[in-house]
Write a structure and sequence with these properties.
alpha+beta, 5 helices, two-stranded antiparallel sheet, elongated, 36% strand, 177 residues, five-stranded mixed beta sheet
Length: 177
């Protein structure tokens, strides 16, 4: 991962109170993390940093779309993304990000990089099973869906004569009691 300087928030010169930062995420952002599951990305990030005397509160909000491939048909489609992340940033002796909701940075730091948190928030906002909306409502026509329909098992037996006579004899034993 390349550390992206545009996602550094220098908090040392900020006055106490709330400050807003906006970012626009494209596919190059994910490429810097060697993540290639998205074909295209167009996501807006709104960051609100609340500077207090002893800690910082960071609220991230993401809205937009990512273009992904359907798990069933491999057709690409735009998946809507809506996600929020709240992070408390405290000061301590050494850097510690073991807790998902609390980040501890050294007292000597004067900025915080939020690129990793944006990346994780967006990747986790996409459903694990990605299904094209056309598959759900039946409007998508693709070769993969046609082949799946063709290979789908047939429902029940249409002709009773196709049954095995040995099974019929066994069924008769059950009903003759």
């Amino acid at each position: 991962m390349v550390k992206q300087k545009e996602f550094d928030i220098p908090f040392s010169g900020l006055s106490q109170g709330k400050h807003k930062f906006d970012y626009h995420i494209k596919n190059t952002f994910f490429e810097s993390f060697d993540y290639n599951e998205f074909n295209e990305a167009d996501v807006n990030i709104h960051a609100k940093l609340n500077v207090m005397s002893t800690m910082l509160e960071l609220d991230l909000s993401a809205t937009g779309t990512v273009n992904v491939n359907c798990d069933i048909t491999s057709e690409s489609y735009d998946q809507d993304i809506h996600s929020d992340l709240e992070l408390v940033i405290k000061f301590g002796d050494e850097y510690n990000d073991e807790n998902d909701e609390i980040l501890i940075i050294p007292h000597s730091e004067h900025q915080v990089n939020i690129a990793q948190y944006i990346y994780e928030m967006l990747v986790l906002a996409v459903p694990l099973k990605r299904i094209h909306p056309g598959v759900i409502d039946g409007s998508l026509e693709s070769e993969a869906l046609e082949k799946l329909d063709e290979l789908q098992p047939k429902e029940g037996k249409e002709n009773k004569e196709d049954t095995d006579p040995r099974w019929d004899a066994l069924k008769k034993l059950l009903t003759d009691k």
